[in-house]
Design a protein that fits this description.
The chain is an alpha+beta fold. The chain has a domain of 137 residues: Beta Barrel (Ku70, Chain: A, Domain 2), CATH 2.40.290. 44% of the residues lie in helices and 16% in strands. The chain has nine helices and eleven strands. The strands form three sheets. It has a seven-stranded mixed beta barrel with strand order 5-6-8-11-10-9-7. A two-stranded antiparallel ribbon has the order 1-4. It is rod-shaped and about 175 Å long. The relative contact order is 0.07.
């Protein structure tokens, strides 16, 4: 029930009541200054614009809540009579004006609410769009990071695969090189074996023609018996090292020289004059190969000295030197005091004399010196590929003068 009053309520009295009170109709605090409290209980409140009837902002409104309204006394017969009395024209006009004002106010409030709702909807829509955009950006950022990780992983995987491929290629190349090297070694061994077999067959087919030294030895022997095969005398006659003048640092230390059991006394005399360090040259074997060897070939009777390493620690360097001399078809020449010592590999001997304890070795002969000889045609083991012999003279070491 609403009863407007002509007097205004003091704001200082109403403000404490308005704090924290909500409207019973709209359930919102709204504008606290427009709240109207129940005249009876002063606990319940309604906004002026939520009340039924005309909205009055400039006068006091007397309002009773539903609970208090039931407690009110029924109106007297006078009031009923007054209310039943016909309304005058002024009251009707006033009521019409109030109704129009109320409608205008309600329309205004509705427009405000509608505009507020539209603004709220726009704000919510913008917030929703912002959330969508932020979510899209976040999703896009996550996808970009994921793509970057995939790209980085692919790059790393590609690098790893390339490294693995390179390693496989290197390992495959190394294996191929090892296989080729083994094939080459086997081919050389087979070729050497075939050569040994051919030489052995040749030796078996033809009778050995002894050289002049062997013939003299055979004629002077008792009962004209054939001499025993040459063997190195157990006690070494010389020990020292080789120093190659055309090889940087090419020194084979601690060599032992053993006289052949068929060598003459001149070999012993000349060997005892050798220095501890022999300054040697590496030459093509064809340059220093004696003519007698070209026609008949060397035999065990041609050996003056046997050369072996003194200890096991020298075997590796000695075997390397022997292999290089064999593969490159070289010979060693040492200028002694009265003669030249020429050293060859044991592969130049007949098959039965080529190995000593299953290994190749070096053997040497003494040859008379030549005054017109020049030190040309030296080669180096360290050189790889093609060996060149400048100003090569074919008459070097052309005649044999074994001591």
């Amino acid at each position: 029930m609403i009863h407007p009053s002509s007097s205004h309520t003091n704001d200082s009295v109403l403000m404490p009541m308005l704090m924290g009170t909500v409207c019973l109709k709209c359930g919102d605090e709204g504008f606290p200054e427009t709240l109207v409290f129940c005249k009876e209980c002063q606990a319940c409140a309604l906004h002026r614009y939520c009340l039924n009837g005309p909205v009055v902002f400039w006068e006091e409104v007397i309002w009773f809540c539903e609970d208090c309204e039931v407690k009110l006394v029924k109106p007297s017969s006078f009031d009923i009579c007054v209310s039943a009395s016909p309304k005058n024209s002024d009251s009707i006009s006033l009521e019409n004006d109030e109704n129009k004002a109320t409608k205008k106010l309600r329309n205004c409030i509705n427009r405000v609410k509608k505009s507020n709702q539209q603004a709220h909807n726009i704000i919510e829509e913008r917030k929703l769009n912002k959330r969508k955009i932020s979510n899209q950006l976040a999703h896009k950022t996550v996808e970009e990071k994921h793509d970057k990780r995939q790209i980085n992983n692919q790059r790393q995987q590609k690098i790893i695969e390339e490294e693995k491929l390179k390693k496989r290629k290197v390992i495959s190349q190394q294996k191929q090189d090892m296989i080729e090297e083994e094939k080459l070694k086997k081919g050389k061994v087979i070729s050497q074996q075939k050569q040994d077999m051919i030489e052995e067959e040749k030796q078996m087919k033809r009778k050995a023609i002894p050289n002049s030294f062997a013939k003299t030895k055979a004629l002077s022997s008792d009962n004209h018996k054939m001499p025993l095969p040459a063997q190195p005398i157990a006690k070494p006659i010389w020990r020292g090292s080789l120093n190659f003048r055309n090889e940087a640092g090419g020194v084979v230390t601690e060599l032992l020289a053993h006289m052949s059991s068929l060598a003459c006394s001149k070999v012993e005399e000349e060997t005892q004059l050798l220095p501890k360090v022999l300054h040697a040259d590496l030459l093509p074997r064809s340059v220093v190969w004696p003519k007698s060897f070209k026609y008949e070939g060397p035999t065990d009777m041609s050996i003056a000295l046997y050369f072996f390493p003194q200890s096991q620690r020298d075997e590796k360097a000695f075997d390397k030197l022997v292999d290089d001399i064999i593969q490159l078809e070289l010979a060693i020449k040492v200028a002694a005091k009265n003669a030249d010592l020429t050293i060859f590999p044991s592969t130049a001997l007949p098959v039965q004399h080529r190995r000593m304890q299953a290994k190749y070795y070096l053997w040497g002969v003494f040859r008379g010196k030549q005054t017109s000889r020049k030190m040309n045609g030296a080669v180096s083991i360290a050189d790889s590929g093609v060996y060149k012999f400048p100003n090569r003279q074919t008459n070097i070491g052309s005649h044999d003068s074994n001591a």
